[in-house]
């Protein structure tokens, strides 16, 4: 059972946060170990596994990047520690931005990062917002994958500024 | 996680940080990235026309201590080698020299990739065919 099935929500790159929270509370209650103290050992183990999955899923769903990663992995489009080649032009831009982060005002760098963030999000915005199982093409998901990896570089620069 | 002394030394006193003129025909530039962590590494070599020996190497890396140490060590090793000898630098040699733990092996792979990219840039600039390399496992 994947996390979307567990939460009984449609597969999405941007799950509704309110629904996610609501399901998280419901499921946490449903699988609370205290309610199963008299259950068989097997059942208890099963409940423990479920409640741990509920927590893990919540962590994924509350983080936009992790959610994208999870969907791509579910679709077999992303592997752990995958070597992914981004266009050299983009790497060059990141090199320069990292250099700028050392020299320029924090606010100015943050502004540049956010500009690029918007720039890279624009082409995938529609896919991200309207993902639909069986409707969204693999090619579109691969575009999302490129966006996902580009964003990693920006995240790293922002972390360095914090 | 504890870094080895050698990593810390390269990290605190990185060798050969800087830039070479990437427009020069004798300079090969490799620019590589590690997408999962967002590290970027630029490694450059300057080759002596007559002898094919790498007379200078510079790098700039934005990444963790191991990535910086790996590229710093790589530039040290590159100087004085011919381009062909440089191709033989293996990431596992970097791992051994720096005592990198398994989770940091990908940093050494990045350095090796940067060397190869720099060499290919030099080759194509000088009318040679770019070499094809096998993908390394990162695990």
Average pLDDT, all residues of chain A: 94
- Low-pLDDT parts of chain B are none
Task: State the major sheet of chain B.
Answer: 3 strands, antiparallel
Rg over C-alpha atoms of chain B, rounded to the nearest angstrom: 14 Å
How many individual helices of chain B? 5
Helix content estimate of chain B: 25-40%
Overall shape of chain B: it is globular
Task: Provide the β-strand percentage band of chain A.
Answer: under 5%
The SSE order of chain A reads HHHHHHHH
Beta-strand content bin of chain B: 15-25%
Oligomer: heterodimer
Intertermini distance of chain B? 18 Å
Q: Name the average pLDDT of chain B.
A: 92
Major sheet strand order of chain B: 1-2-3
Q: How many beta strands in the DSSP annotation of chain A?
A: 0
How would the global form of chain A be characterised? elongated
Q: Which descriptors would you attach to this protein?
A:
heterodimer; A: 162 residues; mainly alpha; Helix Hairpins; 2 domains; 8 helices; 70% helix; elongated; B: 139 residues; alpha+beta; three-stranded antiparallel sheet; 5 helices; globular
Walk me through what this model shows.
The complex is a heterodimer of chains A (about 160) and B (about 140). Chain A is mostly helical. Chain A has helices at about 5, 15-30, 40-60, 65-75, 90-105, 105-120, 125-130, 140-160. Chain A is elongated, with a radius of gyration of 19 Å. Chain B has about 140 residues and is of the alpha+beta class. Chain B is about 40% helix and about 20% strand. In chain B, helix 1 packs across helix 2 (about 65-80), helix 2 packs across helix 5 and helix 4 packs across helix 5. Classes of the chains: A mainly alpha (about 160), B alpha+beta (about 140).
Short description:
Chain A has 162 residues and is mainly α. Chain A contains eight helices and no strands.
SSE diagram, text form:
The complex is a heterodimer of chains A (162) and B (139).
Chain A: H1 3-7, H2 17-30, H3 41-61, H4 64-74, H5 88-103, H6 106-121, H7 125-130, H8 138-161
Helix pairs in contact in A: 2-3, 4-8, 5-8, 6-8
Chain B: H1 5-12, E1 27-34, E2 39-47, E3 54-62, H2 65-78, H3 83-86, H4 91-98, H5 105-125
Antiparallel strand pairs in B: 1-2, 2-3
């Amino acid at each position: 059972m994947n996390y979307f099935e567990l939460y009984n929500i449609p597969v999405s790159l941007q799950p509704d946060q309110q629904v996610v929270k609501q399901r998280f509370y419901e499921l946490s209650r449903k699988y609370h170990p205290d309610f199963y103290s008299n259950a068989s050992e097997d059942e208890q183990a099963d409940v423990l596994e479920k409640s741990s999955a509920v927590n893990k899923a919540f962590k994924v769903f509350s983080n936009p990047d992790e959610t994208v990663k999870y969907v791509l992995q579910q679709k077999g489009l992303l592997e752990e520690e995958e070597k992914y080649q981004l266009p050299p032009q983009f790497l060059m831009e990141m090199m320069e931005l990292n250099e700028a982060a050392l020299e320029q005002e924090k606010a100015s760098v943050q502004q540049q990062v956010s500009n690029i963030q918007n720039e890279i999000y624009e082409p995938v915005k529609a896919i991200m917002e309207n993902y639909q199982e069986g409707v969204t093409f693999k090619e579109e998901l691969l575009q999302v994958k490129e966006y996902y990896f580009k964003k990693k570089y920006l995240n790293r620069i922002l972390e360095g500024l914090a | 996680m504890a870094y080895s002394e050698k990593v810390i030394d390269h990290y605190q006193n990185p060798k050969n940080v800087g830039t070479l003129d990437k427009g020069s025909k004798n300079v090969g530039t490799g620019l590589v990235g590690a997408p999962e962590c967002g590290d970027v590494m630029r490694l450059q070599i300057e080759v002596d026309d007559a002898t094919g020996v790498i007379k200078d190497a510079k790098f700039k890396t934005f990444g963790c201590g191991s990535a910086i140490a790996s590229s710093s060590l790589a530039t040290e090793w590159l100087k004085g080698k011919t381009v062909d000898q440089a191709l033989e630098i293996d990431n596992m040699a970097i791992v051994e020299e720096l005592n990198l733990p398994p989770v940091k092996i990908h940093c050494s792979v990045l350095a090796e990739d940067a060397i190869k990219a720099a060499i290919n840039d030099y080759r194509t600039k000088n009318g040679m065919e770019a070499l094809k390399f096998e993908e390394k496992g990162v695990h």
